[in-house]
Design goal:
16% of the residues lie in helices and 34% in strands. It has an eight-stranded mixed β-sheet with strand order 2-3-4-1-13-16-15-14. The chain has an eight-stranded mixed β-sheet with strand order 6-7-8-5-9-12-11-10, covered by helices on one side. A hairpin with a 2-residue loop joins strand 10 and strand 11. The protein is globular.
Length: 309
């Protein structure tokens, strides 16, 4: 069993409209945009990152806004809800705030003994807030949600699978341990993780999901540095997984592999961080381009949709 993985690093999803996406996360949810860059493989598409003040691993939601993308079709083999952590007693604040902002899909439940508020994103993305009793992470309060109610970071993601057995075995190998079961949902967590250390496996019947606007593209797990990442890569490959070479993503190094249930996993380093090319006070303000795309700056600045902060 591995011990290098400490929880989630980031979650990357797809959207239709960059401005709508930016407004939802920075204004309605009060997160900070920590990077405005482009998709490495499709530089005519933004890659937007939102999180806490520094873009701490475990807090960062990222998006590829494809202007002409079709809608997602939900089903098996996808990430279901992406769940954020908020302090105890703050769900009434959030329900009132999100309702006032016109956010749809609001529904309060209790899961694994935690109060939970589900809501929908602009592309019918599935989100929830969970009151997490022991989350001591420092939130970003320099934006639209300036008080103690602010989001701390990720709580968990759910994996929606036809058969969760093989993926549960994989997660156990990655250092996760089962902590509870409720109906068709198995909860696993990393002991001593980074706060974003819970994965729920939900077993469902039905057809396979199709990617589209509102889909999670991949889930990334956090390791401290490149040395730990190489250890994880070797162990996964020794177990039979097809893992990509290490890829430089400017703000972290990444490896990718497909899980038995069909979800794409990434293992990303905590280094070097989002302040490698911007001062912390000005994260996410300027358009930052990967080195190989810098020569396209004039074209891209004329092509990409302007984003009003």
């Amino acid at each position: 069993m591995l011990d290098q993985i400490k929880g989630l690093h980031h979650v990357t999803s797809m959207a239709r409209d960059a401005q709508e996406n930016n407004s939802f996360f920075t204004h309605k949810l009060g997160l900070r945009r920590v990077k405005k860059t482009v998709n490495f493989d499709a530089p005519d598409v933004y890659h937007l990152y939102y999180g806490d003040e520094q873009g701490t691993p475990g807090s960062v939601m990222t998006y590829f806004p494809f202007p002409n993308i079709g809608p997602r079709r939900g089903g098996a083999g996808e990430v279901g809800a992406t769940v954020f952590s908020v302090p105890e007693g703050t769900l009434p604040f959030w329900r009132e705030r999100l309702a006032a902002e016109g956010v749809g899909g609001l529904s309060e439940t209790e899961s694994f003994g935690e109060k939970r508020l589900a809501f929908a994103g602009p592309d019918h993305d599935e989100f929830a807030l969970v009151e997490a009793r022991y989350d001591s992470r420092t939130p970003w309060t320099g934006g639209a949600v300036a008080g103690d109610e602010a989001i701390r970071g990720f709580h968990s993601v759910s994996l929606r699978l036809r058969d969760g057995g093989a993926t549960e075995e994989l997660l156990r190998f990655m250092g996760y341990q089962p902590v509870d079961r409720s109906g068709a949902v198995t909860r696993l967590a990393v002991p001593g993780g980074n706060g974003a250390d819970v994965i729920d496996i939900e077993t469902i019947a039905g057809s396979r999901a199709d990617l589209g606007a509102g889909s999670v593209h991949h889930v990334a797990f956090a390791v401290e540095n490149r040395a730990r990442q190489l250890e994880v890569r070797k162990a996964l490959m020794d177990t039979g997984y097809q893992v990509t070479p290490v890829i430089d993503r400017d703000y972290f190094w990444a490896i990718y592999f497909r899980t038995p249930g069909g979800v794409l996993f990434e293992v990303a380093t905590n280094e070097p961080g989002f302040d490698r090319d911007e001062d912390t006070a000005h994260l996410g303000e300027a358009l930052k381009l990967p080195r190989q795309h810098e020569h396209l700056r004039g074209i891209l600045e004329g092509h990409l949709q302007p984003i009003a902060d």
